[in-house]
Amino acid sequence: MKARRNKKQVPSFRKLLKTSKVKLENKLKNKQFKQQSTLKKYRKEQRKLRQAVRDAVSKKPVPLEDPKEKRPGKRIEREEEEEEEALPLDMMDEDDLQLMKDLGQRASFLTRDLSSSEPIHAKKRKHERVIDKYEKIPRTLQTAPEKELIHLLPIKDKSGIIPQTREKPVIDSNQDEEDQEETEPEEEIIEEPIRELTLEEHLIERKKKLQEKKMHIAALASAIISDPESNIKKLKELRSMLMEQDPDVAVTVRKLVTVSLMELFKDITPSYKIRPLTEAEKSTKVMLDITTTQNKLKIRKETQKLREFEEGLVSQYKFYLENLEQMVKDWKQRKLKKSNVVSLKAYKGLAEVAVKSLCELLVALPHFNFHNNIIVLIVPLMNDVSKSMLKTFLCLRIKEVEVKKDTEDINKPKKFMTFKEKRKSLSRMQRKWKKAEEKLERELREAEASESTEKKLKLHTETLNIVFVTYFRILKKAQRSPLLPAVLEGLAKFAHLINVEFFDDLLVVLHSLIESGDLSYQESLHCVQTAFHILSGQGDVLNIDPMKFYTHLYKTLFKLHAGATNEGVEIVLQCLDVMLTKRRKQVSQQRALAFIKRLCTLALHVLPNSSIGILATNRILMHTFPKTDLLLDNESQGSGVFLPELEEPEYCNAQNTALWELHALRRHYHPIVQRFAAHLIAGAPSEGSEALKPELSRR
């Protein structure tokens, strides 16, 4: 049979194209219309549901009643069973009863008032679908706020167009009021203002924190010192405290940790430089014993432990030095960091502690690793504007310099024999032994790294020349500079090493400074001390009369501060030692008597420690000038009357007075002052009952 042809004709492409466009447009319009209608219905239903919920919440709950009252018997039986099973009200707590009442008031739409005059089945058919949908919604005692939907662009799929929506939060005025009522008492209870600590409470809290940090630092340091090899990792823990973040104790803790680490490294660092391990040493495996069957070198477990300790020590020492360098950089830059833990004012204190630690490590560990790096870091800091930088010259340990270039050193460097000299005087075997001996001697010299006396003197001379050029430039061009006290103190220390050619000019400058009156009392004492140091050394050959310096010291002795301990007393005693004791042959008896009398008067005014030093100086002067014992006698030794207000020690007639001050000092409240006064009254004997004990006589 022939296949039955399809009666429906196949449309042409053009016709199909036209009809497809029209159909698609119609379909799209229909879908949009349906979508809009469904959305309108959905919004109406949502509004009605929200209104029903608001009505149910606002009305008082009324118990449900069956209007037709069907099956009264079963209802009565059911109520009796529920009453039997229910808990009596007299057995319920008041809180539970109140909770049940509240829940009853907040019940859902089921507690609707059905006793109203409105008909129950009014408009039932109209709202039938709405009620059915409403019944399907799950019941909740607390109704959540409804969220409004925001309609987005639809998505087209194989199945059709899918509408897209997004929830929009709906602000419910009633719910907001209830939330405010509920949250108000909570805010009053929870958000209490934090009480600020008083200054005293804050200090107590800071002291407590600081004590805890100190104990932690002490525990770590004790563990490291007790067993450095086992507890080397605790160095890292201690070093991490350099970054303390608590602003109350950050600066103090960082300073304590810096000093503690410095002392630890001084104690646990070995007396040799630790070199880095080679690749062969790193690849060597740990063995418990050295094997005799193999010729390869293997290390013991103890050696490996020592190497680990050395590696850890060097790495932590390096990190510690980097931390100190960073402290100094922070102070130089003077920029506040983001953490804002340390203030700008505290940077200077931290930098000072860091520099002191670096200097201590350089002095204590000059052989250890990174000593050159420490020098490179410290030396540029000498350009700081601080006036005390010039006092670093006082720490130079220079005692000798090259006085004459013509003189030859006593310790000449040993000269080795040349090959020709050996060939003439020695045999072949002797030459061989001599060569080995010279080689060994060279190696020993290199190992000891001992410098010859000639090199030391040359280096000291060059260094001191630079120091004196700095001092003389300040004396010549900046006599009113705040650097002058450090210059005068340095000249007083190195005056015996100054070249003789500068003596005359230097003494003139010193005297002019004293007469100008611009110097303080301590600075003028330094001028006097410098002048006599010059005269006590190479200045003996010069014909210079220092009487003006004696007069200045004699008339300014009473300017010493009597109510406080100061450095002036120590400088005065040093000047008296140089002026009177060491120059005993150039000092007259009248001058010695005048100074002893004035010193005894001064001992009545100053503090006990200064008084003891002055009386000890008088004891030395009485031994140096034996004829001064006439001051212990009441009878006068010549014509004239003692003039204590006269400023010239040579013409004050001190031989016509007595040391009555010693009798007053004998009743002094300090026992050692009493002992010295009684000793001087007895004539300062070296033996007998009035002699001083050895510990006092050596002062």
UniProtKB/TrEMBL annotation:
Gene Ontology MF terms in the entry: chromatin binding
Annotated compartments: Nucleus, Nucleolus
Biased segments, Acidic residues type: 79-93, 174-189
Residue ranges annotated for the Nucleolar complex-associated protein 3 N-terminal domain, each copy included: 213-320
GO biological process, one term: DNA replication initiation
Keyword Cell cycle: no
Location of the CCAAT-binding factor domain: 524-677
Coiled coil residues, start to end: 423-457
Entry keyword set: Coiled coil, Nucleus
One Pfam short name: CBF
Stretches for region Disordered: 27-93, 163-189
An example Gene Ontology CC term for this record: nucleolus
Biased composition (Basic residues): 40-51
The keyword Isomerase is annotated on this UniProt entry: no
Basic and acidic residues bias locations: 52-78
Recorded family membership: Belongs to the CBF/MAK21 family.
Protein name: Nucleolar complex protein 3 homolog
Organism annotation: Camelus dromedarius
